[in-house]
Design a protein that fits this description.
Elements: H1 3-21, E1 34-41, E2 45-54, H2 58-67, H3 76-92, E3 95-99, E4 105-106, E5 110-116, E6 119-129, E7 138-145, E8 153-159, E9 164-170, E10 173-175, E11 178-181, E12 186-192
Parallel strand pairs: 1-8
Antiparallel strand pairs: 1-2, 2-6, 3-7, 4-6, 5-6, 7-12, 8-11, 9-12, 10-11
Length: 197
Amino acid sequence: MSSRILSTIFIVLGFSALIAVAPSTAKAHDFEPERELFVQVFPEHVDILIIYAEAPGERTDLFRAHFGFALGGEFGEALRELSKRAIVPRMLDGLEFEVHGENPRTGEPQIEFRDHDTRLMVAAYVRYELDELADDQRRTMIVRAQDRSFLPTPTIVYGGDGLQIVDESTDAAPQTNTFQLYRGKEVETVFEQPATP
C-alpha cells in the first residue's frame, strides 16, 4: 500500500475519531484544544499521525485571519504553506518521538485542515524512514510529552507488517487500548520482527 493511500486512511480515521468525541456546538466555547496521537511501527519505517482541534475563539480566529484556507490569487498557495508551518508547533506542543539507538530520516509532514462547527481541525502525518529490521531484531519506540506540554494526549502505539509488541512500559495513565499521555510522561514500546519460518 502506498504511503499516500496509507496517510489518507490514517487522516480519515483520525478525523472521524476526533469528530465523534468532539463536544456539541452549544458548548464549543468551553472546548479546550485537543490532540490525539497514533504511532504505527513497521520493519522499515514509523508512521505518525497527530489529530489536533482548537475551539472557536480569538486564537483560532487570528489564525484564520492570517492564513485563510480558501485564498485564491497569486499568494494563495504560499499562504497555505505558511499556515502549515505555523500550526505544527501548536500541534506538537512538547511531544517528542525517539526510535532508541536509531537515526530516522524524516520526511516533510503532510498537513490537512478541516472546518467543523467553526473549530479548527488539523491532521499531520509524517513518516520516519529506518533501516529494515532483521529477523529476531528489536526496535524501541519512545513517545514522550515534555514538562512544558499542556495537552493531555490519548496515544496509541502499535505494530504493522507483523511486528509484535514484546514489552511496553509507561508512566502515562492506561485507558482502553490507549495511554493518556500527560506532561513529563512517556510511553516506551518494544517491537520484535519474528523470525521467518
